Amino acid sequence: MTLDDELAALAEQEARLCTPPLDGDALWRLGSRVVALATRPVTVEIVVGEQLRFHYAMPGTTSSHALWVQRKARLARHFDRASLSVGLQLQREGKSLSERFGLDPAAFAPYGGAVPLRIAGLGCVGSLAVSGLPQRDDHALAAAALAECQGLH
User: Fold this and answer.
1) Which superkingdom (predicted)?
2) Within a 10 A sphere around the Cβ of 144, how many other Cβ atoms?
3) How far apart are CA 18 and CA 82, in angstroms?
4) pLDDT for 2-32, tens place per residue?
């Protein structure tokens, strides 16, 4: 699959994925579903607005994974796009995050694993982020859990 094909597939996936209700129970189910689907240790974080609503670091993860989820999530919220999509766009353009957008790579990570949480008519209101696997696997895990919580398996 070419980068252009992968970017097109990600755009189509993002158009399908909407956010479940943002009440505490729904967010708990979403975060718990990521943990249940994980086949290796990951850190999972859900942020709504600027409030941390779910965080779980599976045994075998490190504090580094917590920093990665924060940086990926910040990027997904900033662009209202999956962090993998932004990273692949940069790869296709041959540019770094700071060159293309002037963003500090210490605060933003253009690697797969974070997806925006959206409300129709409002846009991005938060993010779901995963770290601990290769970037495409992190993304696939987050997207699969979100799709399952929407009943789109």
Assistant:
1) Bacteria
2) 15
3) 12
4) 988 998 888 888 877 766 677 889 899 999 9
